[in-house]
């Protein structure tokens, strides 16, 4: 119980302070409510639109999870391909960087043309935005394998397949988890951007609420979208803890 | 350990071995060396004089620039290499680390587990087989590394300063363990050659070899 208290209370303190300041600032007229709504009106709006927000949340969560999963699988496979040799890396790495540098808001309309005005375009948007951290971090992990251990595997005649699955990938696991943590948040961002174009989900709801000048509803949906990102991030943290707690310094501490 | 028998068959014959690294750094220059079955050989010399390079070339981990190494050992299980540090797989438990060479050689699980438990008992770590490397002391990790090298019952054991990073008491204990194992297995008809730069200084018998770049050599 004590660990739960230590886990929850510290992040609640800044939240309470900022929310109280917002409440006071709007109440006394320092900030106009159409710029920054009162936290109490955001909560009331969340309650009023519970069903609509919950429906949109399921839609966005589904697209985010699928996009994130695709990033994880495709990003890891692409990193394995790049790790095969210097020539392969020189040939294909620039295209991986492309996914990092391309402004998603600019190519989202293209994705709609290619995949249609539905969840497919949203998933594509989530994947494009979140794949680069997986590629970059997995590649770093794969290329930093202990040379002495590579020698050991060579000494006993291990195949490339065996070396990959018994040495390189397990060694890269902490790096892969770092990539997944970043990708988890980005996949939600990619989904929301995709939904701005296609409509539907939390992104569509934010866009419609903005057009209707329902600023407190925009904030309510934003909070829910952030909550989704936090849940995905927490799930990756839990997975990382389960996989690495016995052997990697990053997860050896008690999570409390 | 007994003195090597000069009539024993030659296990490794090295002729005019030269190794030059990119950039022109010459680690080994025209080395000739014959190693017989049963010999305990120590290489002594300062850092960078080519000791580890020679071990890597003998192990087949690197290719010579010139010269040749004729080795009678054809099976991968015949040669084992112990590094300066333990270099264990941190995500595997002690038993999984010791069993790794047998796993890579395609030995079935029940036999490799049995063999690994046996060798762990010999190095005094039988009770710790369920631990992860991070839960062991430096000396224990090194003993796991030695157990991993010995699990295939190699005929040639290459030790690349494995005790250098340990305190003085632990290496002395570990060296005694290696030597007693060597003597015992030799009696069984399995022969190993050990290259350890410090073993001569700690009473090891056999030949001492020196890199050409080492000035204070003791002579072969």
Note the main attributes of this structure:
heterodimer, A: 256 residues, mainly alpha, MetI-like fold, 10 helices, 0% strand, globular, B: 220 residues, alpha/beta, Rossmann fold, 3-stranded antiparallel beta sheet, 3-stranded parallel beta sheet, 5 helices, 21% strand, disordered C terminus
Question: How would you describe the overall organization of this protein?
Answer:
The complex is a heterodimer of chains A (256) and B (220). With 256 residues, chain A is mainly α. Helices cover 82% and strands 0% of the residues of chain A. Chain A is globular, with a radius of gyration of 22 Å. The model of chain A has no long low-confidence stretch (mean pLDDT 91). With 220 residues, chain B is α/β, with parallel strands linked by helices. Chain B folds into two domains: 1-73 and 156-220, P-loop containing nucleotide triphosphate hydrolases (Rossmann fold), CATH 3.40.50; 86-154. Chain B has five helices and eight strands, in the order βββαββαααβαββ. Chain B has a three-stranded antiparallel β-sheet, with helices on one face. In chain B, strands 5-6-7 form a three-stranded parallel β-sheet, covered by helices on one side. In chain B, helix 5 links the parallel strand 6 and strand 7 (194-195). In chain B, helix 3 (109-122) packs across helix 4. The relative contact order of chain B is 0.20. At the A-B interface, helix 7 and helix 8 of A face strand 5 and helix 2 of B.
Briefly summarize what is shown.
Chain A is mainly α and 256 residues long. Chain A has helices at residues 2-27, 39-48, 50-82, 86-101, 104-115, 119-143, 147-155, 160-198, 201-211, 215-244.
CATH architecture of the largest domain in chain B: 3-Layer(aba) Sandwich
The CATH superfamily of chain A turns out to be MetI-like
Helix and strand run of chain B: EEEHEEHHHEHEE
**Main structural class of chain A:** mainly alpha
Low-confidence stretches of chain B: 185-193, 197-208, 210-220
Q: Taking strands numbered 1, 2, ... along the chain, how are they ordered across the largest sheet of chain B?
A: 2-1-4
Q: Unreliable runs of chain A, pLDDT <50, ≥5 residues?
A: none
The rounded Rg of chain B comes to 17 Å
């Amino acid at each position: 119980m004590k660990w739960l208290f230590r886990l929850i209370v510290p992040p609640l303190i800044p939240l309470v302070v900022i929310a109280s300041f917002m409440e006071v600032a709007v109440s006394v007229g320092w900030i106009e409510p159409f710029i920054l709504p009162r936290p109490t009106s955001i909560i009331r709006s969340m309650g009023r639109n519970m069903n609509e927000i919950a429906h949109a949340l399921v839609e966005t969560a589904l697209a985010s999870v699928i996009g994130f999963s695709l990033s994880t699988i495709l990003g890891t496979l692409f990193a394995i391909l790049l790790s095969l040799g210097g020539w392969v890396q020189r040939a294909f790495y620039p295209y991986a960087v492309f996914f990092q540098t391309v402004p998603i808001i600019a190519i989202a309309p293209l994705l709609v043309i290619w995949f249609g005005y539905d969840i497919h375009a949203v998933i594509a948007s989530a994947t494009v935005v979140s794949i680069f951290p997986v590629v970059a971090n997995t590649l770093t992990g794969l290329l930093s394998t202990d040379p002495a251990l590579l020698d050991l595997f060579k000494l006993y005649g291990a195949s490339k397949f065996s070396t990959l699955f018994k040495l390189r990938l397990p060694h890269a696991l902490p790096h892969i988890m770092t990539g997944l943590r970043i990708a988890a948040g980005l996949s939600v961002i990619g989904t929301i951007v995709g939904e701005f174009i296609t409509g539907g989900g939390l992104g569509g709801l934010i866009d419609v609420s903005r057009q209707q000048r329902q600023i407190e509803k925009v904030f309510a949906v934003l909070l829910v979208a952030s909550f989704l990102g936090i849940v995905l991030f927490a799930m990756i943290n839990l997975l990382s803890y389960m996989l690495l707690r016995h052997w990697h310094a990053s997860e050896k501490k008690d999570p409390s | 350990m007994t003195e090597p028998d000069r009539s024993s068959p030659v296990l490794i014959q090295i002729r005019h071995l030269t190794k030059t690294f990119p950039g022109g750094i010459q680690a080994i220059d025209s080395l000739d060396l014959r190693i017989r079955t049963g010999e305990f050989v120590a290489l002594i010399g300062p850092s960078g004089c080519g000791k580890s390079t020679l071990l890597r070339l003998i192990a087949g981990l690197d290719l010579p620039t010139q010269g040749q190494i004729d080795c009678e050992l054809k099976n991968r299980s015949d040669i084992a290499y112990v590094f300066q540090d333990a270099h264990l797989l941190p995500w595997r438990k002690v038993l999984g680390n010791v069993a790794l060479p047998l796993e890579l050689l395609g030995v079935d699980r029940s036999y490799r587990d049995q063999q690994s438990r046996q060798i762990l008992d010999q190095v005094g770590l039988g009770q710790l087989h369920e631990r992860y490397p991070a839960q062991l002391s430096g000396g224990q990790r090194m003993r796991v590394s030695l157990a991993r090298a010995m699990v295939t019952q190699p005929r040639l054991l290459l030790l690349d300063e494995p005790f250098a990073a340990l305190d003085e008491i632990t290496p002395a204990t570990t060296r005694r363990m290696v030597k007693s194992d060597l003597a015992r297995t030799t009696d069984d008809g399995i022969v190993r050659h050990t290259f350890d730069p410090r073993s001569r200084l700690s009473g090891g018998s056999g030949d001492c070899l020196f890199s050409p770049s080492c000035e204070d050599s003791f002579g072969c």
